[in-house]
Specification:
By secondary structure, this protein is an all-alpha fold. It is built from 3 helices and no strands.
Length: about 120
């Protein structure tokens, strides 16, 4: 029985020795570096996507604000023309109400875009 134990220990030692030879530290470090480079590339790609989304949302926000101001200016101009008598007051009121609906919709979009820009800033 003692012989079997010794033979088992020799086999175990040879197995460990073979595994140690397979496990080259330099190769393991090189593989680790390759893995890290891959993860870095993925992180940079994700960062670029977030930055692009932030820029896009910022541009949309500016466009919405410009559109909101244009609608406001048109409404004010319509009301002035109605007071001067250049446009019928019923027609001006109807157009102003339509502009107010558009402005409300744009205000909602501005709020959403603001939240999206803020979430991009937090990432």
């Amino acid at each position: 029985m003692n012989i079997f134990q010794r033979l088992f220990k020799i086999g175990q030692a040879e197995t460990h020795s073979a595994i140690d030879k397979l496990e080259d530290p330099i190769k393991m470090i090189e593989q680790g570096l390759r893995d890290l480079h891959t993860e870095l590339d993925q992180a940079n790609r994700a960062l670029a996507e977030v930055k692009a989304m932030h820029i896009r949302r910022g541009n949309e926000l500016k466009q919405y604000r410009d559109e909101q101001e244009t609608i406001h200016n048109k409404s004010v101009l319509l009301l002035k023309k109605a007071q001067e008598g250049a446009v019928q007051s019923e027609e001006a009121d109807q157009l102003v109400k339509e502009n107010l609906r558009k402005k409300a919709d744009i205000t909602r979009r501005i709020t959403e875009a603001d939240q999206q820009v803020a979430s991009c800033n937090n990432r």
